[in-house]
Amino acid sequence: MKMIGMDVGQKTIGVAVSDELGWTAQGLTTIKWDEKDFSTAKEEIESILLEHNIKQAVIGLPKNMNGTIGERGEASQSFAKKMENIFHIPTVLWDERLTTMAAERVLLEADMSRNKRKKVIDKMAAMIILQSYLDAKK
Prior knowledge:
alpha/beta; RNaseH-like_sf; 138 residues; Nucleotidyltransferase, domain 5; 5 strands; ribosome biogenesis; YqgF; 25% strand; 5-stranded mixed beta sheet; cytoplasm; 4 helices
């Protein structure tokens, strides 16, 4: 079953997809959107879901370091509900603490320029979120 992993921010959504067997995650794209208007991302998300035959979504849940849910976590919960209601696919909220920092570290170790890192950091974070979920399921 193919899954989509998403790192949801206020202006961008990092997107990754799994292979058919659910073993590996690959970074796919970054969607630019306005968090206040889901329709600004709807068409692009729908296209990805159909093209990749996605059956489940794994949405990053940014928790505070003490495990509580803050404003960004609530925004991710709201996004997950919209995904379920609009696209009729099940969603899983997955703890994403430190994934953006982990993605940044990987890109720094790859000696990627700051400008290039900005372009790929969100889809890299989505890939880490999805891969973490896939690894935990094994």
